Amino acid sequence: MNKRKKIVVDHAKALFLEKGIQQTSIQDIIERSGISKGTFYNYFQSKNECVAAILEQAYHETTINRQELLLKNNAKDLHILVQQICMFTRTHEQLGIAGLFEEIMHSGDKELKKVVMNYRLQEIEWLASRFVEVFGDELKPYALEAAIIYFGAQQHLSFAARITNHRSVTPEQIVNSLFHYMRLIINSLIHENTAVLDPEKIIFLKSSLEPEQISRAEVIEQLDDLIENKKLTQAQLELSEGLKQELEQEKLRLHIINALLSSFLEAFRGTRLYEQAKEVMGTTLLYMKQQP
What we know:
292 residues, 0% strand, 2 domains, mainly alpha
């Protein structure tokens, strides 16, 4: 997402939180953002597309933070997975978008509900792949079902904690508690044939709800913004230019890009450009994920 579009998304999110999605008009967003109607429709075909962009932004930020955590940690470590899951809740709290989900699910807008379904399916798909990394390839045929079971339990347990005023219960406590049960459930799925869902049908549903695609040009534009900064160190400049050269290859060398990203982000750690570098890394990873 380019900077100008992100500014419009941020203004729209503020309006949705203040007034509600249904009560906010496209004209409200245009006036708050200080843009023309033509500019708005250049970015979004409808208000619902703007809502989808807000959720995609939240997922994007979560993805960046999760990937950063993996750079120096073992992907098979269950404690790392717990931290990654909690990032989902933390991002929602930081962006203040939990209320948007409730409004959408209580609305009669089928298109918006489809947007939320897509968002949730992305999270289920991510957790399924991480379950396989942590618990092994034996779980692969049942990983989607395990992820669905986990999120269902987490949602209801978190809801019960809120309505019974258990404010001292943290997301980490809930996740850690649930994993005591998930070990038993995963064992049953693998060894006792307790699965009830057809993974192929879930994958088919996911394929019909794909998120907004990221273009190669968008990734390179973000890199160019970084490269143009006159205060880059030699290492930062060389790694940024090297990453750009790889992304400009006709056939992407995904393993080389993955290796470069780790060194690239590390070169910016502790500097004022670190957040911008994280954004580049996150967009690059999402672009790579789209590749066949």
